[in-house]
Amino acid sequence: MSSALKDIVTAEADSQETQRLFDAQRKRALVLRTSSADERIAKLKRLRDLVHERTRDIYAACHADFSKPAPEVDITEILPIVMEANHAIRHLKNWMKPDRKRPTLLMFGTSAEVRHEPRGVCLIISPWNYPLNLSLGPLISAIAAGNTVILKPSEMTPHCSAFMADLLADVFEEDEVAVVQGAVETSQHLLSLAFDHIFFTGSPAVGKIVMKAAAEHLTSVTLELGGKSPTIIDKSADLKTAAQNLVWGKFANNGQTCIAPDYMYVHADIADAFVEATRKALEKLYGKRDKMAANGDYCRIVNNKHHARVQGLIDDATERGAHMPIGGGANSDDNYLAPTVLTDVDAESRILDEEIFGPVMPILPFTDVNHVIAAINAKPKPLALYVFARDNEFIKQVLANTSAGGSCVNHSMVQFLHANLPFGGVNNSGIGNSHGHYGFKAFSHERAIVRERFSLAFLFLPPYKGFTKWFIRFAVRWLN
Ligand code: NAD
User: Fold this and answer.
1) Ligand 1: which of 157, 180, 258, 429 to mutate, judged by most atoms within 8 Å of the beta carbon?
2) From ligand 1's centre to the CA of 462, what distance in Å?
3) How many CA atoms lie within 13 A of 440 on its CB side?
4) What is the pLDDT of residue 10?
5) Residues 125, 10: Cα–Cα separation, whole Å
6) pLDDT digits (tens, 9 = 90+) for 38-88
7) Is residue 125 lining ligand 1, measured as CB closer than 6 Å?
8) Is residue 142 classed exposed, middle or buried when 0-12, 13-18 and 19+ CB atoms within 10 A define those classes?
9) Cis status, amide bond into 362, omega within 30 of 0
10) Are 81 and 434 in contact (CB under 8 A)?
């Protein structure tokens, strides 16, 4: 690890320094407006190659922040970043081409196009749970779209933040990309500046603070938020596959994933069998229960505060009568919490209200899927909704009658890895999209341009009498 990484910065950033960076980026943003696809691609290639070269530093930073196993770092941090970069490198020339539009009847005699112009100076505020992926992913889209970026990563994963500051300084001048480290105070200072776009990933509660601050300057926002993502498992589901895919979705990164399946509705006929299938899947993925704490493939909770929070959710549920067929090991020294399954959970339990963001799987049996759909629709729209079934009618019914940022059928979380799909929430779980072309568009303004050639627009000009008056009536009736 380079020497810069040894001095981990957790203090709030100096606001004058931040203002200086912002002013410098405003100037540079005007220059970048006319940057070519080749210039942007060269930067993305350099960034991608450095990520490959510095894999060991990435493992070390992720391990120092929350004991994240290297293969999980590969799959959930490095792979999405490299994929995002490669996808942009491959398609950028095409994305940047003006999108020509055919004239409508009324606009006959004009030519028209949509240009994707850079938004300008962008702020990216990122969370701690996938500290590199959720910072560098949007950054790649912002650079592809020709912007400058101030990145404010999370203060909770300081080794990853320091690593990114070091990495990005190797690729970009600070007037193009700068990392500003700090916590709430730094974030709030940044939010007071008149950015052209803010891309925020984090909780719905902070998302509201960000949107209010953005309103002050009428800054556009992309909000990638969280919440509780429900899972519905029908009795027609292949239980072994369902359990395996859900164990991975729930316990990878120790459940600290925005799109982790949060709570499970399981058809009552198969609820006991599902618990047993989950036990087997856990053993297959992470080994026997007594050995799990020593298994390097099983991640930790990010810090003591969150460890206590998740333990508190389990305690609250069990005090209200929940059973724990799987679980029961914790160590606050290293923030270990055994994979936990809860059944017979009281409806008033906090675990059914708050986003869990930890390795706990509450199981709620159901007999009528209409009740499940009604319960989901009574809550804020989730970031993800998963359905496990072999019965196509059941799948159709669930998808057609609910809303969610994204969904998987018979899997969980993999929607994030599909470069051709938008990734985003809906209302409480987010506004706007990221990834691939959608990410490029989030950081671009779609500018409509009409070129006059031989249109009939002059026929609409006053004075409004005689032929002009007749022609306007004709246009209202027929030319649209
Ligand atoms: P958070 O909202 O607490 O923090 C996110 C960022 O906002 C951090 O950089 C933090 O410093 C900053 N921040 C915190 N409080 C602030 C305030 N009062 N004013 C201004 N800035 C502030 O979220 P977190 O705990 O880092 O991450 C977990 C949350 O993020 C979960 O809700 C999760 O579902 C969500 N999330 C969503 C996605 C997604 O892509 N939709 C991805 C990861 C996480």
Assistant:
1) 258
2) 55
3) 26
4) 59
5) 15
6) 999 999 999 999 999 999 999 999 999 988 999 999 999 999 999 999 999
7) yes
8) buried
9) no
10) no
Decide whether any atom of ligand 1 lies within 6 Å of the 184 Cβ: yes
Identify the H or E element spanning 431: strand 430-431
Encode pLDDT of 182-228 as tens digits.
Answer: 999 999 999 999 999 999 999 999 999 999 999 999 999 999 999 99
Catalytic residue among 77, 84, 176, 224: 224
Tokens of 118: 């850079």
pTM: 0.95
User: Would you state the structure tokens that stand for residue 341, as one six-digit string?
Assistant: 């399954």
Which of these, 228, 230, 237, lies nearest to 388 by C-alpha position? 237
> CATH number of the domain at 230-424, please?
3.40.309.10
**Domains 3-225+431-446 and 230-424 equal at CATH topology level:** no
Three-state SS at 17: helix
DSSP 215-263: HHHT-EEEEE-----EEEE-TTS-HHHHHHHHHHHHHGGGG--TTS--E
Q: Is 84 tagged catalytic?
A: no
CATH topology of domain 3-225+431-446: Aldehyde Dehydrogenase; Chain A, domain 1 (3.40.605)
Return all residues near 308 (Cβ < 8 A) that are at least 6 apart: 332
> Which residue's CA lies nearest to atom 10 of ligand 1?
154
Token reading at 480: 């649209």
In DSSP notation, 299-365 reads ---SSHHHHHHHHHHHHHHHHTT-EEEE---EETTTTEE--EEEES--TT-GGGTS---SSEEEEEE
Q: How far is CA 460 from CA 108, 110, 352, 468, in A?
A: 14, 15, 61, 6
In 3D, which of 95, 387, 415 has the Cα closest to residue 265? 387
399-413: b (≥16 Cβ within 10 Å) or e = eeebebbbbbebbbb
211 lines ligand 1 (CB under 6 A): no
Instruction: Map out the domains of the chain as residue ranges.
Output: 3-225+431-446, 230-424
Question: CB-based burial of residue 289 (10 Å sphere; 0-12 exposed, 13-18 middle, 19+ buried)?
Answer: middle
Residue carrying structure tokens 């929940």: 322
- Residue 429 CA: which ligand 1 atom is closest? 41
Those residues of the chain that have pLDDT short of 70 are 1-10
3-state secondary structure of 423: strand
